[in-house]
Amino acid sequence: xxxxxxxxxxxxxxxxxxxxxxxxxxxxxxxxxxxxxxxxxxxxxxxxxxxxxxxxxxxxxxxxxxxxxxxxxxxxxxxxxxxxxxxxxxxxxxxxxxxxxxxxxxxxxxxxxxxxxxxxxxxxxxxxxxxxxxxxxxxxxxxxxxxxxxxxxxxxxxxxxxxxxxxxxxxxxxxxxxxxxxxxxxxxxxxxxxxxxxxxxxxxxxxxxxxxxxxxxxxxxxxxxxxxxxxxxxxxxxxxxxxxxxxxxxxxxxxxxxxxxxxxxxxxxxxxxxxxxxxxxxxxxxxxxxxxxxxxxxxxxxxxxxxxxxxxxxxxxxxxxxxxxxxxxxxxxxxxxxxxxxxxxxxxxxxxxxxxxxxxxxxxxxxxxxxxxxxxxxxxxxxxxxxxxxxxxxxxxxxxxxxxxxxxxxxxxxxxxxxxxxxxxxxxxxxxxxxxxxxxxxxxxxxxxx
Length: 450
What we know:
CATH topology of the largest domain: Growth Hormone, Chain: A
Order of helices and strands: HHHHHHHHHHHHHHHHHHHEEH
CATH architecture of the largest domain: Up-down Bundle
Low-confidence stretches: 38-42
Distance between the termini: 39 Å
Oligomer: single chain
Shape: globular
Strand content: under 5%
Strand order of the largest sheet: 1-2
Largest sheet: 2 strands, antiparallel
Number of strands: 2
Mean pLDDT: 85
Number of domains: 2
Radius of gyration: 22 Å
């Protein structure tokens, strides 16, 4: 059973990992705008504040924000509707069938509204499956506490493995043919060293949607082989579950909870700046990484995440909640400082390790902290409260602002000032770390909240 659930998680996160890292460089290749066309809201542009807010509604931002908006909707949909009205495995099959077809459709789509429509369908159906796969796993494990970590590891490995097919897909085959390699070893070396770059790489990125779509269709079929997991009965209208979200919100009256909630927003923003900009940055002449190696290089962070998670328990015991989180937040500042001031290829590759440390030491630690400190009857809703920031609003802010910052504010005459660009998330990380250091003071005992 653990193997079957492991495969489910592997495919679930393979899908996401296949298309996300390169979409940020692909949308400009389709000529989707990073700024709102002035003709649409001519009157709005008379006011500077409204003019800046308008960038949230550019074509690129709308597409990138399909996922965080779906995350916010999905947190309610999957908890309050999907798992109350459908058997989990059938909902998973339906979602990945339709979502997979939508993803394959993106390969053929080059105009804005069809692209936005297909991406929105995929995200609205995909996001609830993250919770649904957890439900299937927990319902079919004998000892969730000891087994879930191994099962969930399949998702991380799936994300990592999603990067590697593209070392053979995003290849300049004309260059390989011209080299006329002799023998398998020589041919393999030539292929791996002949990655696409520039416009050719951007154009070939559409293959990521085919790979993600095929994986989604495979999971749709595989879902029908999973054990039957019936829908959960709805809770009483006046029961504690119906009030859990309100109770979770009331916990923001505690200053340390409010501070952590705000820092989660900032850290999510910075985390998503990494995904928005790194893929493009790695292929610049200053760094010089071949296009077919961008996703494998970025997957180093997930490999480091696995190793970091193994030492997270010992780290929390040694450093405590606050210091561990501060290290996780400052990891972003360190990585962007290397990007800005030391754009050496070897250093850039090496610093990808920090991504795993950032995730484990902040995001994973936040989830553990919530489970430890929040009252038992509102823990699920409290996790959702932080997910609104981590998967929803933080990503929404980054995906709205990052295309505009990179393509308009820090790009002049076709040249991007990456140093100035990377100083933005670096400064935000430092502010978040200072907020934790100065204002995050949880009670010594976890049971002192109400």
